[in-house]
């Protein structure tokens, strides 16, 4: 499985989701590679901040040839997660083309919802060359019991792209764990954050299993 986490908007949670998704797949027994496709190198910085043994290797591949270079590397893993750059350029195109599924993190704000259009268009463009490519929104930084938190799925409907049931709420443990190079499941195993990441991993794994069976 190759999952890209992309959105040309900055700060929406791409790296947070990529790192925790990779850790969650490892917890399910998969051999995982995390590809940092962002020249900012945030996923690499996360792994450098880590004092414990690595959960999975992190490689920097912020290259417009990623879709050509990745397959030979990916063969040794059950799952590859790509942390994308906040750009809608050739790096984003390569990361999308390298993926089987693209997750688009969006925060429940109208600006984020409007800004998702560019990433959705890049996915549509890539689907012309790669029919099997799928995309899905992941709602991040939801604030529990707010109208905007509830309405965001409806606001995303015009994009005609699925919205995952699993959503992440605004929780300080996402930032605190990242500072130590840990996943939320490692930093706070009994937390709500760990539970919502487990649900996200489960939903992605079962969507992937259905896709393989089709
Ligand atoms: N659900 C959340 N709750 C609290 N903080 C969060 C959450 N998701 C992300 N953050 C924090 O928001 C900031 C931006 O998140 P992150 O770096 O994952 O976004 P990004 O899309 O990768 O950014 P960039 O576009 O710069 O690569 C980070 O400080 C992160 O810790
Ligand atoms: Mg990032």
From TrEMBL:
Residues 5-183 form the CobQ/CobB/MinD/ParA nucleotide binding domain. InterPro entries: CobQ/CobB/MinD/ParA_Nub-bd_dom (IPR002586), DNA_Partitioning_ATPase (IPR050678), McdA (IPR048089), P-loop_NTPase (IPR027417). It comes from the Bacteria. This is Cobyrinic acid a,c-diamide synthase. The lineage of its organism: Bacteria, Pseudomonadati, Pseudomonadota, Alphaproteobacteria, Hyphomicrobiales.
